[in-house]
Structure prediction request, 254 residues.
Amino acid sequence: MAGRFEGKVAFVTGGSRGIGKAIVQMFAEEGAKVAFIDLNEEALSGTTNELRDIGYEIYSKVANVSDTEQVETAVKEVYETFGSVDILVNNAGVIRDNLLFKMTDNDWQTVMDVHLKGSFNAARAVQKYMVENNYGRIISISSTSALGNRGQANYATAKAGLQGFTKTLAIELGKYGITANSVAPGFIETEMTKETASRIGISFDDLIHASVSQIPVGRSGKPEDIANAVAFFADEKSSFVNGQVIYVAGGPKN
Prediction:
């Protein structure tokens, strides 16, 4: 049986592990040709080999999303390799958490560059191919932190910015058959949330337990939960869903 993304090409930033890897796997399993970039060479190589061993068509490259030229080169190579770029998922992210009075210029700028400039670079690079094809899906990974979160002035600002970016792309690109939407995860078990536990000085199990106690569905999120929401926005049938933010957090957030 053909998957719902058969014949489509998906490009995912930060696709080597965690949420990004789950999204890459979902597209591959559903029939898409998948391309992803990442800065983590070891993780990128491992995920690429894992997927190719199963028999999926994969393009991957070590690239920094905040470097315009690297992103444009990767997107061009994907187009030349697979013949189109139909879906973009802006997933690459970093955290540099700290309270405002301790936050350095570098903590702020690094987060802005990866989340905001990175998403801008990728969206601008793919849109010309999508406009030519009169079809596209752009999905950016925001966060419940966009609503404000202690110790994350940089991250919260960037993730809120992605929602404004999404809504603007939806307005500008809609007439070309391109939709732009955003998925805002709540607490998801990933390497990034492990880093958060380490930063605040508790075990990952304790962080999960504390988080679950605040989640109405009574469990923590998994990367696959986010991949499912991305799949909804990426589906060809979702062409009338545009400029939306969906919170995938086990309960209401907005």
The radius of gyration is 17 Å. Residues 189-220 form one domain. The chain has a mean pLDDT of 96.
